[in-house]
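Exercise: predict the fold of this chain.
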Amino acid sequence: MAGIAPRILCIGIPVRDLTFRVEAVPARGSKANATHLAEICGGNALNAAIAMARLGGRVAFAGPMGDARETSSGFILERMAKEGIDTSHIVRMPDVTTPVSAIMIEPSGERTLTIYRDPGLWSVELPDADVLLADCRAILVESRCAAFAPPLCTEARRRGIPVVVGVDRAMSLQDSLLTAASHLLFASEQVQETAGIADDGEALRHLANLTPAFLAATRGPLGTIWLSETGELEETPAFPVQAVDTLGAGDVFHGAFTLRLAEGEGVREALRFAAAAAALKRTRHGGGLAAPQRIEVEQLLHMPPAATLSGPARL
């Protein structure tokens, strides 16, 4: 990767995650013992930011965080600093609580979670656009930031800066991020719920009538389905892996995709790079903190197509 690493702005709401490994999610009203506990930082955009930093990007983060006096925000900021993420644009919200989640991870890697987000977080006002967008090559934003991010995203698009929205829940068809984005990355369930159509391809075609953005939907081991510039459905296969932890895999995918766009690559190459990064993450416990390094992704991209990874990956 020649030249200066691209500067990428992530917009989101950081979360403090408590993860528990369990043999099975307990039934309602019952108890279960966990085999492992980890305290990590998370949130869609933050997981993506960590991935981009490890893959070679210069990452800045903007968004709301809780009161400076509470402990969760201090824990998250410490982790972000260790990853080399610029936190100078984070807005501290007086008397507001930083989000906290409890996550149960089964042996298959599937996760079940509950999270608390203080409603006061959505009243944040982001710093000035000229400050945030200076030397910016791309923006990645969580879909849940529609209450405060669209004006900045619209200004970024006016300046020719790609805006990638990582969608982790169904969006309203009136959501302003649908039209403020240059790229919308859904998961299969979310694209179907958003479009109201129980088929990934047809859902993408329907949404293409509502937004000029590039549209794609990830489908786990089935790979990614996306619409080309000519409106044709295409597919990018997933890398076969033995998954142990899916927490944050989609976010790592979004971050890797955004980084490759910022580096000047097209969507086809960006999707393949993202698929490799997400595959490596799924072979390791740790949410976004299990995101791979650049050399690991490059090595996976050059492995024989039939190779299967098992966790923890050793390349």
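Check your answer against the key: Residues 267-282 form the longest helix (16 residues).
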